[in-house]
Specification:
Helices cover 70% and strands 0% of the residues. By secondary structure, it is an all-alpha fold. The longest helix is centred in the middle third of the chain and has 16 residues, at 43-58.
Length: 128
Amino acid sequence: MLTSRLGDSGKGIAVSPKVGKITLREALQAVIDDQRTRGRKSIDATQRRIDLHVLPYFGPDRRMSTISGQDIESYRAFRMSEQKASLASTNRELAVLRRAFRPESLLNCVLALREEIREVLKATRVHH
């Protein structure tokens, strides 16, 4: 693991304790921010889906790296069988979740931590 992190820093990728620990809430916020940047009209509907269905089921502080395909299928089954949601509704909710997993959404989360990462790097920089 240390070798992997050292390799990442050698490639110019910032290494911080927060990298790899992006939460579902942070990733979904990146989706909302992206929609706002692009001037989408569906921001309110997307936020409603997130707040009413996605976050309560998965938990806002759950790490993105812990959500599996099986978890997503279980979510769809739960919404359709126990909450009687339509296929169309679950498809829209899963589309939001899918966008959160896109590399650009995750990158936005990491970029939001840029200042914190810079401070960590400054604090650990060795002066010769």
